[in-house]
Design goal:
alpha+beta; 3 helices; two-stranded antiparallel sheet; 4-stranded antiparallel β-sheet
């Protein structure tokens, strides 16, 4: 007999050919069975995102540009309420901070420092800037309408938007 056609005894004490023995498919073995389906590999992000924390928002604050420190920006962000995040508080990020970083123990990557701030304070900040933008738009509209002449009236700009969907013939 050749090696390919060896007789084997199964669990039921029956003689079976090696080719007829039940085998575990190779697709159920090995690394391929434990990998994500479809080869959905994605490159790691340059700036990792920390796990969300209730009541806090995260942001990367610029500490330098092209190797030149930006102390003004860092100071402004600290005064706005941003607090540097300690690397030990977020071990899931798995990053190596910049060499010669001025922020020892914090997460700094490529001149950006991970900071967090209370959500309420940042919501108030966003509302402040939204109101400022609205006031600027009103100022532009008022300046524009000042040039209005009754003999040739200008239309007041419409600042509302509307989304409609086509009506299908189905």
């Amino acid at each position: 007999m050749s090696d390919d056609n060896e007789l084997l005894i199964s669990e039921d004490d029956e003689w079976v050919m090696a080719d007829e023995q039940e085998r575990t498919p190779r697709s159920n073995e090995g690394r391929e069975a434990t990998e994500r389906p479809g080869g959905s590999w994605l490159p790691a992000s340059v700036l990792p995102v920390p796990e969300p924390e209730d009541g806090w928002v995260f942001r990367w604050v610029r500490t330098s540009t092209l190797g030149n420190s930006d102390n003004t920006n860092v100071s402004q962000k600290f005064r706005e309420g941003w607090i540097p995040v300690k690397a030990e508080d977020h071990p899931e990020l798995q990053v190596m901070s910049d060499i010669e970083s001025r922020f020892d123990g914090n997460l700094e990557i490529g001149g950006l420092l991970l900071c967090k701030a209370p959500k309420e304070a940042m919501d108030e900040r966003a509302e402040y800037y939204r109101n400022m933008a609205n006031q600027q738009m009103e100022s532009v509209d008022n300046s524009f309408m000042r040039e209005n002449d009754p003999r040739m009236p200008m239309l007041k700009p419409n600042r509302t938007t509307r989304t409609t969907f086509g009506r299908g013939s189905g």
